[in-house]
Amino acid sequence: MDDVRDHEKESLRTVFLRRWRWFTRFLKVLFVGFVIYQSPQLTVFQVVRDWPLQKVFEGLAGEISSSSAEWDWFGPIIYKDFVIRTSDGVPLLAVDRVEINRSPLVLAFQQNDIGRIRIEGGRLSTAVWNGGSTIETVLEPWIARINQRNPVANLQDLVGKRNKGNATKDVQSHMTGIIELVNTTIELTDLRKGDAWLLNEIAAVIPFPEPTEGGVFSFQSSDVICSGSIQHAEEPQLKVMQSFSQSKNSLQTKSIMSRANSMLARPGGWSVTVSEQEADHGKYALVIGATRCPAGISRIASNRFGWSHVLQGVVDIRADLLLGKSLQRERPAQSGDESTQYTIKGNVVGRDLSVVDTVTDERRFLIEKVDAPFEATIFQDEYVIQKFQAETNLGYFEATGTIKAPSGRSSGNNTVLPGWHLLEAVQDDNFEAKASINLPSLLNAFPGTHVLRPDVQLTEGTVDIVIKSQERESSRQVYFKSELGHVSAMRGEEKVEWNTPWSAWVYARQHFGGELRLEEAGLSSAFADISMTWSVGCYRDKVADGPWPYFSKSEHSC
Fold first, then answer.
1. How many CA atoms lie within 13 A of 120 on its CB side?
2. Is residue 138 over pLDDT 80?
């Protein structure tokens, strides 16, 4: 009897211990789950909070930190007062608020889709010098490290090879997402002059480029919108560390487009947008606009890239560029599709423009005004100009027709006159260009050039130029005409006039499928007439390696 009772007690004890072990395991799992659930609260500690930032920006030539963060397993990731400093501790970039709309739980399972990264209240101050800038110095090691991690950055290397399947996997491993900028300011300091240029109120939506199996990077996922304003400052004035976290000027994504339109109504405003054409799928429109923007900001680019001249003045720009296929970036060697075309049209207006030497600050060229509407289609090997007109204080210009793209090959013995390459460029199709240039204005546009005696001032004079290519039965004729007329000048109080000082012309002919050959050229003036003609007989009898000119007051033929 006692044995039975002892056995029952032992069985109850075993069941109790088994259940207790399961209960303690459940408590442990519950405790671990609670700790994991509450782990985002550990972001109050800077070491925990900044660890993901340091991993993302590993290799950065500087320091990165934040003042606070908000993590939630099922909510967005938010950093506040995000700061990047240079290696010597100087603040370079400060951001009031960075928000990633993906939750940590989603990012754990979809690591390549980071969603929308929203940057509010960004302030970047970078110095620019010949060959570099502060921001480039800080980011270059980080970018180099990314390229090392992804050695197959250009997928063209894999297309057509046996490992094409690996290329597809590599495409799928690239990150996708969208970056939004709101109320961002960029200060560019010119170390040569000591002044600064501010890009204020920048608002942008920029998608990550999407790699495709064809070996290109495309912006097909979303529209690109970027706008802001340009302001010149005598000296750097941006306070990178000053916080604007309490600012209530935040924009919604849909409001960034309206911001781009409103910026164009303000002096100094600019915008760049890229959008897919709904009526023509596969084509993208690039729209660039600027209203009374100071062209002097080109000095920053001149300083960075070592240009010898800069542009100063005020410009208005309205330009639409219609891309023949998706907005893509690819290697030139791989872009041999002859069907690729770009259509560009718009208008450029400039006032008080001048080309200035970057070293001496001497003005090389001045133009008071320019108004140039244009429309053209650009193919791989030719440019089709539907419309080009330029009305300036120097004169009037217009052109229509087709121009061959420069091939870099010389025509050898056929180049008998200066500017012959220009005639060769328009020989294949109809083309016509006209120009009427005001000589006094043209001389005044070059303040450092003196072609007249100091006591002589040109008061009137016009140069008319015509270049035309047209079909003539079994050949095509290309000709150039230039005439200088109605010239007058003041020498002291004496007025001197020339009714028709000179006219010049060049005729060339191209038999279909052949090369362009000089047919006639001449110069006529009050003091001399010079002309030269070429014919097949002369060419064959006189010279075997090029056209043979004859000079006389009248045409000469064999």
1. 22
2. yes
pLDDT of residue 5: 60
Q: Between the CA atoms of 130, 133, 138 and 142, what dihedral angle is there, to the nearest 10 degrees?
A: -80
What proportions of the chain, in percent to the nearest 5, are helix, strand and coil?
A: 25, 45, 30
pLDDT in tens, 8-42: 666 777 777 777 778 777 777 776 665 666 566 65
DSSP letter assigned to residue 263: H
- Amino acid identity at 408: G
pLDDT of residue 222: 53
Rounded mean pLDDT, 331-350: 66
Residue 397: strand pairing partners: 390, 435
3-class SS of residue 81 = strand
Taking Cα atoms as reference points, which of 160, 186, 158, 182 lies closest to residue 171? Answer: 158
Q: Which residues pair with 184 in a beta bridge?
A: 202
Considering only the C-alpha atoms of the chain, give the largest distance between any 2 of them, rounded to a whole number of Å.
149
Give the per-residue SS3 of 486-499.
EEEEEECCEEEEEC
Helical residues (DSSP H) of 92-192, grouped into ranges: 104-109, 134-149, 164-173
DSSP 355-369: EEETTT--EEEEEEE
Q: Give the residue with greater pLDDT, 272 vs 208.
A: 272
Cα 457 versus chain centre, distance: 43
Rounded to an integer, what distance in angstroms lies between the CA atom of residue 415 and that of residue 403?
18
Taking alpha carbons only, the member of 74, 70, 69, 68 closest to residue 37 is 74
Could you tell me the two tokens for 418?
Answer: 């200066």
What's the CA dihedral at 104, 105, 106, 111 to 10 degrees?
Answer: 70
Burial class (CB in 10 A: 0-12, 13-18, 19+), 18: exposed
CA distance 460 to 454: 17
Give pTM, 2 decimals: 0.74
CA nearest 250: which of 373, 120, 127, 142? 120
